Amino acid sequence: MKWQTSQSVAADLHRRMHRSVDRTRKTVAEARKRGVPTSGYEGLCDRLSATARAIDDQLVLASRLPFKARHKALLGLRFRIADIEQTGDRIGRTALEAATPLVGGIDESLRDINERLDHHEEAIDELKELGGH
Q1: Which of 36, 56, 74, 133 is least enclosed, having the fewest CB within 10 Å?
Q2: How far is Cα 43 from Cα 56, in angstroms, rounded to an integer?
Q3: How does DSSP classify residue 4?
Q4: How far is CA 59 from CA 9, 71, 73, 88, 123, in A?
Q5: Same domain, yes or no: 69 and 129
């Protein structure tokens, strides 16, 4: 609890990591509001949270080390936290993309419709040339 207001590097890293995990959960919740089934994404969020808790344990241990060793340990953990942030962003982005219409599929569908109409018009023109209707 004291890390909520502490100015230590370990506390800053703790808060940064948990803001990222919270942001990921909020993004997945937004995707759920848009109608995306999110149980798989929520499971990924749970795993991300478990990983964050493991890093929290390492942050606590690192914060108790002498300065030089603490600095080295926290630097390594900073990179792990950046990995957590990137993974969380990817989870959220993927969940939101699932809620977005597939433009490529729409383009292909419209192209197919227009090709069929073109073929239909060509057939009518040929029929007229042959003296038909």
Answers
A1: 133
A2: 20
A3: G
A4: 9, 11, 8, 19, 73
A5: no
- Could you tell me if 65 and 16 lie in one domain? yes
For residues 120 and 87, membership in a common domain is answered with no
| Angle at CA of residue 107, ends 119 and 98, nearest 5° | 145
- The C-alpha atoms of residue 52 and residue 56 are separated, in whole angstroms, by 6
Cβ(61)–Cβ(7) under 8 Å?
no
Span 54-93, pLDDT tens digits: 999 999 999 999 999 999 999 999 999 999 999 999 999 9
Count of domains forming the chain: 2
